[in-house]
Automatic annotation (TrEMBL):
Homodimer. Pfam families: tRNA-synt_1b. It comes from Celeribacter persicus. It catalyses: tRNA(Trp) + L-tryptophan + ATP = L-tryptophyl-tRNA(Trp) + AMP + diphosphate + H(+). A motif ('HIGH' region) lies at residues 12-20. One of its GO terms (cellular component) is cytosol. The gene is trpS. It is found in: Cytoplasm. Its EC number is 6.1.1.2. It is an enzyme of class 6 (ligase). This is Tryptophan--tRNA ligase. CDD domains: TrpRS_core.
Amino acid sequence: AFTPRVFSGIKPSGGLTLGNYLGAIKRFVDMQGGEFETIYCVVDMHAITVWQSPEDLRHATREVAAGYLAAGIDPDKSTLFNQSRVSAHAELGWLFNCVARVGWMNRMTQFKDKAGKNAENVSLGLYAYPSLMAADILLYHATHVPVGEDQKQHVELTRDIANKFNHDYKVDFFPECTPVIEGPAMRVMNLRDGTKKMSKSGESDMERVNMTDDADTIAKKFKKAKTDPEPLPEEMEGLANRPEARNLVNIYAGLANMTGEEVLAEYGGQGWGFFKPALAELAVERLAPISTEMARLMNDPAEIDRILAKGAEKAKKIADPILDKTFEIMGF
Ligand code: ADP
Ligand code: NA
């Protein structure tokens, strides 16, 4: 039996959004200190699958670490580190490049979305990235991987890699990991167009809420969010063809630790003039203290680097023996 262990990561490319918070970081905090051993990573080697200037990469790496810390990841309760400092990630990633099949990679929808019509001219790393992600997870024999909806296919690929490795080498070495995708806000949409994922790279700053936004900015963005003229329905089914409305209800639910149904039990029948200010107030209450703390942490980059370096030492204690054993199984 494998130790119940959580691994997850966030790429330091651009800033953190409310999508990263509700889909990932908030849930990482919730899983901390319970039945699981928790390992959280700033996956800096994934960031360079698309161009990052060295200054941007350094800044974003510290900012993601600050986001984790400000939201409540406690380096004494969790292992918090950046990927590049534990070289076993790159090594196991290469071994898995030789286990994973090209046909598997060709089925990854995120690659198709990100590469678009430019697929001949993106980095080889962008194509192989799910195999490095499998290494990130399996290097710790992680059993549970909390992610947003968009990462589900990559966690399933991780299971395929683990199964093929175990089968090819006739071992029971890598566990089958489970994606943990639960709660109302696993796919936070942008505030201008409820059909597109909220992301770091969206065109307009008004369409996303950044984890670094101050109270006034957060409130303004929710008050200006696109909606429709109808009042809120009493039931979730009433939101089926109302993507903007559904998104705001889900965001409220995620921030308040409620279900969408519970939010509608409270606000069903109300108009936007009532619900939007309530949402803005809740978002400010939950997010503004985090952005204030992030700003404080970012004033002391040396302290962030020290926390990450200490976390890397802790991570290596688990990762290095698993890598060594993998090499041995393979005949090195
Ligand atoms: P991004 O997708 O923002 O480029 P990552 O790929 O590093 O960043 O994602 C980090 C985590 O945040 C993943 O678990 C991903 O599923 C989650 N996430 C990112 N955007 C959203 C979103 N809009 N809604 C829910 N979860 C999200
Ligand atoms: Na993503």
